[in-house]
Design goal:
The structure holds two protein chains of two kinds. By secondary structure, chain A is an all-beta fold. In chain A, strands 4-3-6-7 form a four-stranded antiparallel sheet, with no helix packed on it. In chain A, strands 1-2-5 form a three-stranded antiparallel sheet, with no helix packed on it. Chain A starts with 5 loop residues before the first strand and ends with a strand. By secondary structure, chain B is α+β, with helices and mostly antiparallel strands. Chain B has a domain of about 90 residues: Sandwich (Immunoglobulin-like). The longest helix of chain B is centred in the first third of the chain and has 10 residues. Chain B is globular and about 40 Å long. Classes of the chains: A mainly beta, B alpha+beta. Chains A and B meet through strand 3, strand 4 and strand 5 of A and strand 4, strand 6 and strand 7 of B. Chain A: InterPro entries: Ig-like_fold (IPR013783), Ig_E-set (IPR014756), SoxZ (IPR030995), SoxZ_dom (IPR014880). Chain A: This is Thiosulfate oxidation carrier complex protein SoxZ. Chain A: It comes from Sulfuriferula multivorans.
Chain lengths: ~100, ~160
């Protein structure tokens, strides 16, 4: 199972600034193992969704072109301090992870 | 609506099936345009990636700001920040033009999400980093060159 992800959400004026750090190898499937010379199978996050208080605000598609341990920052207008942010991801092998945080 | 679109696109084996879905009226062409289907992520060059996204006629825009280093020492981790000040921005896609699969990510924004995305991408070699923004059913684009000294895609 995947490592936990970290979310930090802070209010700046009326805009919530959300930062997410996911733990994932993000293998492209194009890299070779230096010992065996075999291609390392692709293993990367394909979908990320984020919602605030149950309302979807972000729906992202990713490829192996996102760096290892992906960082994602986005801004949402409208929420208040104390609102809940939930982030989900799923990868090309069917792994899933979810985390939530309270906007502070 | 988004969940339906994603499912339809995901279950589709390729562009052909999507075309059938469009023809059958399951998907309106405008719906297919907003978010990049999986096939666009598998495109091997920029033209195909843009075509897959339905963004071939994207207009250059000065309202898109790409914040990225001029020179990236490590191509495996290149911080990229895209800000779109175009009103009604609903999607932002990031393309690294010379990567093996140029389309890096696309982000559908809704319900108050601002035209701002910050992330870190891999770059195989020096190339343009292109942002494609969808706003009000139209696509806009801007690009910034990033020099890469050590590639981050294989090597």
């Amino acid at each position: 199972m995947a490592e936990p992800m970290r979310i930090r959400a802070t209010m700046t004026g009326d805009v919530a600034d959300v930062k997410v750090l996911m733990n994932h190898t993000m293998e492209t499937g194009l890299r070779k193992d230096s010992k065996t010379g075999q291609l390392i199978p692709a293993h990367y996050i394909t979908d990320v969704t984020a919602s605030v208080n149950g309302t979807k605000v972000l729906d992202a598609g990713m490829s192996g072109g996102i760096s290892k341990n992906p960082y994602l920052g986005f801004k949402v207008k409208g929420p208040k301090a104390g609102d809940k942010v939930v982030v989900n991801w799923s990868d090309n092998k069917g792994d899933k992870n979810t985390a939530e945080a309270t906007i502070g | 609506m988004n969940a339906l679109r994603r499912n339809v696109l995901k279950s589709a084996a390729g562009a052909g099936t999507v075309a059938v879905a469009v023809a059958a009226g399951l998907l309106k062409p405008t719906m297919a345009l907003a978010g990049a289907p999986r096939t666009a992520f598998e495109a091997k060059n920029v033209g195909d990636a843009l075509k897959g996204m339905g963004a071939t006629g994207a207009a250059d825009s000065k309202d898109i700001t790409i914040k990225a280093p001029d020179i990236a020492e490590n191509g495996a981790v290149v911080p990229v920040e895209v800000t779109s000040s175009i009103a009604g921005t609903t999607a932002i896609a990031i393309i690294s033009e010379k990567n093996a699969t140029p389309l890096v990510a696309d982000f559908d924004l809704s319900n108050g999400a601002q035209g701002f995305i910050s992330t870190r991408i891999k770059m195989g070699q020096t190339s343009l980093v292109r942002a494609v923004v969808t706003a009000g059913g139209k696509t806009y684009t801007a690009a910034k060159e990033v020099k890469v000294t050590i590639g981050g895609c294989g090597g």
